[in-house]
Structures are given as structure tokens and as C-alpha cells.
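Fold it.
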Amino acid sequence: MNFKKALIVCLIPAFVISGCGKTTKEEANNTTNQETLAQVSGQGTGQDTEKTESSGTEASSDDESQDAEVSRDLFAMDTYMTLTAYGEHAQEAVDKAAERVEALDALLSTGDENSEIYQLNQKGEATLSEDGGYLVERALELYDKTEGAFDIAIYPVMQAWGFPTQEYHVPDDATLKEKLILADASKVNYDKDTRKISFDRDGMEIDLGGIAKGYTSSQIMQIYQDCGVTSGLVNLGGNVQALGCKTDGSKWKVAIQSPDDTEDYLGILEIENQAVITSGGYERYFEEDGVTYHHIIDPTTGYPADSGLISVTIVSDDGTLADGLSTSLFIMGEEKAAQFWKENSEKFETIMETADGKLYVTEGIADSLTTDMDVTVIHK
């Protein structure tokens, strides 16, 4: 079974680069002698690899110390990740961040028999940790806010399609009907004071994977700040979040992959102190009888979302929100997603591509995006 790589390509500085002007695609392609191109697959291979790279950590001057880079690659949450920090405290920050990632992975996994989410799904009730409780609370808020588009109770339906185990197949109508009854986050009972959770229906299960990486990237940003780091970047399998600017004061450049071509991208976005998270049907999919089925399931039908959108990118200073909304807006479709943004424009921006090749960008980031595509700007 062939899989396309799902990625957001991060242009991470290897040397100090002056200027922060907009960059065309041709110029971006010519900067490889000045910047490191970090390419991360959105699909995990099941192989756990870890590598620590650092440059200039023994810098002899204050300027060199501030620019010293520490970068670490690891495999967690079923994806490859890269943690990068700059400055004299970068090594401590990256090490602590890696520990936090591994702890959250162990806590939130649906497949690890020792995780609290696995135990909850088996027993139907639990008292959650602070992390688990916070994520459930945020997830249920998103469920209400998006009118059910974001639904952590979709997990039984995902299992019916074989996405968690990669044993893919199209479920029959009877199975889908049975599983859809369970896919209803309104039947999740959660008390935020005690962090006790239970399900109204036997067989219900939840999956926090739709916001877990976004939450993790935000947690890493907090660790960086606590360690005194003011410039850093994390790429969690295509979920990118930046702390501050690059060490030369210019903004980070994040290239957003084209859903049609893994070797191309929709454009380059300049950011600081923001998360950039993209969802698309190209991330995980399979083919059966000549039909392609992707992993973003519409909770109202139990089938892969067919909203007319093929890629949705969310930009926000809240990684958890960005993660959840990238899926939600993909399911909503362009018109409903645009209206949702207008009602919540103070919290996020979005870039959306439709199946007919149109690119929609909200006004708050229109000037920060460089692209060769024709753009329709969404105004409030």
C-alpha cells in the first residue's frame, strides 16, 4: 500500500540570515545554502529513532552562545519529530522537551495498554491526569463550538475502517451504523473539578490524537520559555510551532505542502510565536476497488469527509486549538469554515485549498503568505 508523505516543510536557519522580506518560491529554492530544509513525514513507520545534533554549544562569545543551536530528532505519537532550540540553555530545553513528549505519548496513546486513555476505553470510566483532563475538556468545548465536527468519540468508527491498526478496509453499512451510534461526544460525561470521566453507552471509546500533538507543541514552547530559551521551533510530524523569531530577528518561514504533490508546496508562511498545523486527506489513506479513502472521518456519515476541501491549515498562538480546528474546518467545507472563522477571527487564521484548485486565505495572514497560486482573501 502506497502512502504519500504528509508534511509541513520547515525552513530552519543554520546560519544567521539578514532581512525578513517576503520570499518567492524561486528564491526559497535558492536558499538551501543558507538554511536547512527539514522534511518530516506525517506517517510513522513504527521504528523508534533518536538523534541529538548540536552546533556551537561550546561557543566562546555571548553572541555565539545566543545563536548556538541544539536539535533533536525522535519518534513518538506515531510520527517523527524534530525539537530545535537556540541559546545557552538550548540543550537543557530540548532534553526536557523530549522527556515531556515521551511522557505525553505514554499517557495518551490509544494502543498502549498502560496508557490512561487505553484503560479508560476498556473500562468506560476513569479519573484522568491533569493532562488528560485538560485535553478532554478542550475537546468537548471544540465539539460544542464546531457543532460536532470535532468528535473524540469517533474512535470506534476509525477502528471500523482500520486506520488505527493500518489494517484498512471499507466497513459494511451495518457495521458503520452500529459504530456511529457510539460516535457521539455528547455522551461523554466529564467533571472538570474531579477529572472523572465516564461514557453513557457501552462500547464507546475516545481518541485525543486530534489535539494531542498541538497540545504537545504548546507544552514544549512553555518548557523552552521556562528554560530561558527565546528562539526555538518544533515540528511534530508536520505540526509546527515556533517560539519568538529566528536568532537574527527575522520571522520563521514555514512551507505548506501541496496536497497534490509531495515535492511541491502551496506557499511559504512567515510566523513568530505561532503554531501552523495542516490537515489533508493525503496524510493517511488507502485504496480499495479503485476508490481512495482518507482518514478524516465525517462524524455525521462515518465516511471520509467529502466537503470539497483537500487541505486546511490553521495558524494560531494556541497549538491545541490549531490542531483541533484543522480537522474540524476540513470537515465543514469552505463556506462553513469561512463563516466559523469570521465568528472566531481573534483566535486563529486559516488557509484552505479546494478540490478545484482554489486557495482561500483569511485576511490576518494574507500578507504573510508567499504563493504562486491565485488567492481569494476572506474578509471579516
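The two ends are 43 Å apart (CA to CA).
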